[in-house]
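Researcher: Let's try something more involved. This one mixes different molecule types, so please make sure each is placed in the same coordinate frame as the others.
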Amino acid sequence: MSMLQAEGVSRVLEGEVPVTLVRDIDVTFEAGEFCAITGPSGSGKSSLLYLLGLLDVPTEGRISIEDAATSSLPSDALADVRLGKLGFVFQFHFLLQEFTIRENVALPIRKLGRLAEPTALARAESLLEELGLGDKTRKYPHQLSGGERQRAAVARALANDPLIVLADEPTGNLDRRNGSIVFDIFERLAKEQGRTVITVTHDPSLAARAGRRITLVDGRIQEP
Amino acid sequence: MALNLEIALKHLRSRVRQSVVAVLGVATGVGFSVAMAALMQGSLLDFQQKLIDASPHVLIKDEYRDPPLQPAERAFAGAVALDGLKPKEELRGIKRAKSLIAGLDTVPGLSAAPLLEGQVVIRFGGKDVAATLSGIDPERHIRVSQLADDMSTGTVTNLYAAANGVIAGDGLARKLGARIGNLLIVSSPAGVVLRMKLVGLFHTGVVAIDDARAYALLKKAQVLQDRPNVINRVRIAVPDIHQARGLARRLEERIGYLTESWDEANEDILNALQVRNVIMYVVVGAILLVAGFGIFNIVSTITYEKAHDIAILKSLGFRESDVRSIFVTEGLATGVGGSVLGWGLGFTLCKILESIEFNAKWAIEMEGLPIYYDPLQYGIATAIAVTSAGVAAFLPARRAARLNPVDIIRGAA
Ligand SMILES: Nc1ncnc2c1ncn2[C@@H]1O[C@H](COP(=O)(O)OP(=O)(O)O)[C@@H](O)[C@H]1O
Ligand SMILES: [Mg+2]
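Model: All components are placed in one shared frame. Result:
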């Protein structure tokens, strides 16, 4: 069984001059895999990640999660899959400013509604603790450093124990040390917890740490 | 749901000044509509009460709703038109009045009293004032009217005490410059002149009555109008004034004479009050519309400001309907908050209006503004405010819910 699969996926933006973001993508990810997507700027890395994360819908081909096709699902069902099975980390942390970081992390847990409120907050705290933010759980995003915020965003992505973690240049705004910390976390998630981690990165030394590397050029996967 | 509410409230708190303005807008709308409704309803009820107190519940007149068919018209039924007819002179007055009143007396709860009403001119000290003089049977009359309570000087039975006693409205007496005990010269269209002694004054609060009405014994009025044994009105009191209209209709069907209930007799003035209500609703509607713009403004602003949050919530797995409900909740919360504040404002306004003292005469006398407190006023204003808040918020909320997270996330990168 594959965890995440793209078959013949293309995404074309309609318009007077149609723009092809990615084309003919065939790729399969397994559980426990840690994969880095690299490629020049504008090659379609983010576009591919949005498609794999069900935030965008391919114009051709199909995306399957745990061998279940997602193409025919209505937007509410896609939202539910994102909530229960996927975790996103973006280059910008996108934490909600009005909530403390433990409340931010608890947000998807409460949304999913499987845990009682106090348990949700407790889980958020323990996730933050694992990511070295145990003493900052009641702080607001603006009270944290960039590296801390990004780690909080990673904690939020992990809130509902996702099968798949998708990250788009999560270290783009971080210094080397903090970038390395985030990759340490990803490595552990894949190796120790058997999750699929897919991250876009510009940094060759960080990409080298991933078990698998995919390079995109002009919206296509370039075979090594 | 609780989560969406929490996010909504945090958003509102992030824009304190605008939120406060929107809440105050709603509060103003609700406050003023409550105060206006209380005032309108209060003055309507006050007015009605004074009318009811001063008017007969039901009045039988010696008239017909439609002019009676002339004998010639009856003879040539079907003719298109008959010209130059001289109408048959009918003796005015209610016929067989004694048996009519005796019949009414048998109905439990009803009271009936005969009157002879007629125009007179009252002269005193060189002043002539036109008035309506009603000849009454005092015992019966006090059972069908508030006259006994309305007496400001003297009593109704004083009419028996003097040879030719008359009771006048205090406004009428003031116009004449007459005091109790003065002899008034009263003349009728029939040419009879009587010297009558002013033995009492009454005050109803209805200007038209206080300024132009007088009472005498029925017998004296019949002498004055030169219509012995004739009455032209029967005044009826019912235990429940809401029965008056139905009773009047049934009576008229039975006896043929024009029979009016208090509300029918005062229909024009009551309709004028309805027009006032329309004006009130327009004003209140305008205030609430402005409040709606305030809510639209704050919710739109927040949806633009929080585009990143919307994108992240959707990427986390919040549905379109969740996002919509967050922003609609922001509108509703503003509407509810404003309404609660508006209740306080409305109640305070009512108290202030109530405390204003003045003396005004417009059809009825008012010493202050009559305020009627009714929870329904608050309920209706709140329902309208919260509904319009929901509608005002729905438009930006729908737009926000449809935002494509990918566009926003790309835009930020
Ligand atoms: N909405 C859009 N309209 C036009 N072109 C777009 C749009 N979104 C992305 N593109 C283009 O598609 C290409 C792929 O973008 P992206 O996936 O963000 O690349 P990467 O993440 O690898 O830098 C780029 O050339 C970008 O300019
Ligand atoms: Mg990119």
